[in-house]
Amino acid sequence: TVVITFDDGYDNVFENAHPILTEYDYPYAVFVNPDLLEAHPSAYMSWQELKTIDAEGATIVNHGQTHAHLIRRKDNESEAQWQARMKQDVVSAQQAIDAQLGEQPKYFAYPYGEYSPALEKLLKDWGFKGFAQHSGAWSQWSPTTAIPRFPASGRYANLETLAVKLNSLPMPVTHYTPADPLVSHSETRPTVTVELSKTEGMNTNALRCFAGSDVLEPHWDSEMQFSVTPKNDIPMGRSRINCTAPSTSGGYHWFSVALIRPDSQGNWPD
Ligand SMILES: [Zn+2]
After folding, report:
1. CA 110 to ligand 1 center in whole angstroms
2. Where, residue-wise, is CATH 2.60.40.10 in the chain?
């Protein structure tokens, strides 16, 4: 099964994707920012356009009110203040969407794909599923608050590599670290440790991880657990370490760990 999603609700989804998806009768989801689409009508789909595609089989879901870097704390912001700000951004956006389109599923795509265990817990408490931007096949092993997605736009708009991704298989990961993508500024080469629930069907000898263009050979801590450490400093801001292992029946088992490394001031680029 493949799920097609678009973040941001740009007008070009209505112009370019909507006619093709309607022709093929493919369902899809569009994650929107209510504040932004009302403030910038030339860039984003209007509520009326969203109603049109909703009636034709799209699902309109939540990308936050303002597309903020949600996990980035403000100076002197208490935990309670941060939680209230998150509620304002996530729950008020859902109310705006439901008011315009009738009750929609509580699916939230993290702006910039940035999440943290604290934000995952809030989403879970509020009954949301969370969609991230690290890659991998969605499976029973994916946390429902950090669902992986493969990018297919920009430099990833390549049908050959997309075909490999669409045919990917999940990696049966039960536990991994760091669970919080936000590492400290000084953690230039964070070690990623991954614990598997089984290895059947996977050619673990050929398991490799990728950090940027570097290929990382895993160190097997035990039969079911491996670790990798980047050979070079990870970039400032968002990056990923992707791990793949050939399946004995073709295709790749795929697992990705999201990382965010802030600058010394706690910020990072959009
Ligand atoms: Zn976005």
Report:
1. 7
2. 169-261
5-131 under CATH 3.20.20.370, yes or no: yes
What single letter denotes the amino acid at residue 158?
Answer: N
Q: Which fold has domain 169-261?
A: Immunoglobulin-like (2.60.40)
Pinpoint the alpha helices (H) of 61-169: 79-101, 117-125, 159-166
| CB-based contact 231:216 (threshold 8 Å) | yes
Domain with CATH 3.20.20.370 in the chain: 5-131
Neighbours of ion ligand 1 (CB under 5 A): 7-8
pLDDT one-digit tens code per residue, 195-248: 999 999 999 999 999 999 999 999 999 999 999 999 999 999 999 999 999 999
CA of 256 to the centre of ligand 1 (A): 19
For residue 105, give Cα distances in angstroms to 10, 68, 182, 185. Answer: 20, 21, 28, 36
Q: How far is the CA of 43 from the centre of ligand 1 (A)?
A: 13
Mean of pLDDT over the chain: 97
Q: How far is the CA of 66 from the centre of ligand 1 (A)?
A: 10
Share of the chain above pLDDT 90, in %: 99
